[in-house]
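F.,

This is the one I mentioned.
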């Protein structure tokens, strides 16, 4: 039997990491497709790129809305330090951050029935020398700071044999820069440890502290071990998760909030290759199979014993052996270790059997695999419960899991179709095709700041993306009987990495029949 959402409709407050479509619009759409009432703070109180949001306004908004809500999904960095990116840049003292955190205790005391799902992000060690998402000095010293990060963790794990390398790495960075960078990490770690205490005391319902752009060795791994040790001491593992992820966590915790009181959603994981679980990731510290297990648990899901008993199929396109950045990659991604046509056959069979299927494409980071997209053309995309292929493998998996776990709760078919189509537009059409074409048409564009070329880039973006989106809608989604309203695409920030694709999907005449859900 389909799951039945609680009545009346759940009322959810969301304080997101920032205002990008995947971190704000996607979780809002996921909530609305289930009939939930989603409320977000005024846009001017939220962070915009590296400009911090306003914690004072967020505090007032939260205190004002809490009495009328059933659940709160909150990014700790936004609430306490102005946003996920600002938290890596601002100099606010720890005392100020902890004082802002106390609003959650105040809200819990006033409204003990409000379930609070909180998440924080361990400060990343960025893979590139980005001076905007990191401290400005990272543009010059990023490589040396990464070397220090690795050397520090290796010494922490392996002892004296690594001391010489650590000393050399420390000497290669100006003392004041290293002290500031490490100090920022320590402040944020202290915030997360305080959140663990709130979890232990029952203020928080569930807590995720995730790792953004992590690797086997580094300060993020060191922080993770400290968090795990504290979770051991407090005995909170039944309500705590720490794993590689970041931007997608609002979707995971929203799934927990909306499925409150229901049995855990059961997922059957179908990989594109028989060895898919062992595939290596670029921005995560573990193989694909362990990453999938972590994201299922974060969203409150459990593995199914068979496809027939599953609430949804999580169809994961893994690389043959390991992710690569440039398509096509014949050495580690498109290898004989997987067989994409057979994978698509299985997805089609699942759909024909009436199963809810959510596709997660993690073969390459930062966009869908173009070969997979060609094979998906024979799949009725509008019948998918979900689709995701954006940014890191963790971002993709968390989003796809949320789509699948919420499929049985869908009340608004137009909202669901709009959410799936939006991911196809962003993750496939833009990230895998148009973004590269726009970049090639510009004059030596900076990956960090387009400057005066932003207007040209946005004009090219709109001209190239809009007809592609219209074509995919006509071929795959128009048969639903729903109508598409298409806005003008533009960039979220002054860089090509994140686009904004305003669209709306609504009824056009009699309501269409929803596809089978189970």
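My design for it:
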């Amino acid at each position: 039997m389909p799951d039945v959402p609680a009545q009346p409709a759940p009322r959810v407050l969301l304080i997101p990491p920032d205002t990008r479509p995947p971190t704000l619009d996607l979780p809002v759409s996921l909530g609305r497709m289930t009939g939930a009432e989603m409320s977000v703070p005024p846009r001017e109180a939220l962070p915009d790129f590296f400009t911090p949001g306003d914690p004072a306004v967020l505090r007032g908004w939260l205190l004002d809305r809490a009495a009328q809500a059933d659940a709160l999904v909150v990014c700790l960095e936004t609430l306490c330090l102005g946003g996920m990116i600002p938290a890596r840049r601002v100099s606010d003292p720890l005392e100020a951050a902890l004082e802002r955190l106390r609003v959650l205790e105040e809200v819990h005391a006033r409204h003990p029935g409000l379930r609070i799902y909180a998440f924080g992000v361990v400060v990343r060690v960025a893979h590139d020398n980005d001076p905007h998402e990191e401290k400005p000095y990272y543009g010059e010293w990023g490589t040396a700071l990464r070397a220090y990060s690795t050397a520090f963790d290796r010494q922490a794990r392996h002892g004296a044999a690594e001391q010489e390398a650590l000393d050399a790495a420390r000497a290669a960075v100006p003392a004041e820069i290293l002290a500031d960078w490490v100090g920022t990490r320590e402040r944020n770690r202290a915030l997360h440890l305080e959140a663990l205490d709130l979890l232990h005391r029952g203020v928080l319902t569930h807590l995720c502290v995730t790792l953004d752009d992590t690797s086997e060795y580094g300060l993020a791994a060191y922080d993770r071990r400290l968090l795990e040790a504290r979770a051991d001491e407090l005995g909170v593992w039944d309500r705590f998760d720490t794993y590689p992820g970041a931007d997608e966590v609002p979707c995971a915790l929203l799934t927990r909030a909306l499925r409150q009181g229901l049995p855990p959603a059961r997922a059957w994981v179908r990989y594109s290759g028989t060895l898919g679980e062992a595939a290596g990731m670029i921005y995560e510290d573990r193989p694909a199979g362990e990453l999938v297990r972590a994201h299922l648990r974060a969203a409150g899901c459990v593995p199914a014993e068979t496809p027939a008993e599953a609430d949804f199929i999580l169809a994961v396109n893994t690389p043959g052996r390991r992710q690569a950045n440039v398509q096509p990659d014949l050495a580690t991604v498109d290898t004989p270790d997987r067989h994409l046509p057979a994978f698509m056959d299985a997805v089609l069979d699942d759909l024909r059997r009436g199963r809810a299927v959510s596709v997660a494409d993690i073969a390459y980071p930062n966009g869908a695999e173009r070969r997979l997209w060609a094979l998906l053309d024979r799949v009725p995309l509008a019948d998918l419960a979900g689709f995701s292929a954006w940014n890191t493998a963790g971002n993709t998996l968390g989003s796809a899991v949320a789509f699948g776990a919420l499929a049985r709760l869908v009340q608004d078919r137009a909202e669901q179709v709009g959410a799936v189509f939006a991911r196809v537009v962003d993750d496939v059409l833009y990230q895998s095709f148009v973004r590269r074409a726009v970049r090639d048409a510009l004059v030596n564009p900076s990956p960090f700041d387009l400057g005066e070329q932003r207007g040209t880039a946005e004009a090219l973006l709109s001209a190239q993306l809009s007809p592609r989106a219209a074509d995919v809608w006509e071929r795959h989604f128009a048969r639903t009987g729903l109508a598409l309203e298409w806005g003008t695409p533009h960039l979220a920030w002054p860089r090509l990495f994140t686009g904004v694709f305003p669209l709306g999907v609504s009824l056009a005449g009699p309501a269409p029949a929803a596809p089978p859900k189970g």
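Residues 511-518 have pLDDT under 50 and may be disordered.

Talk soon.
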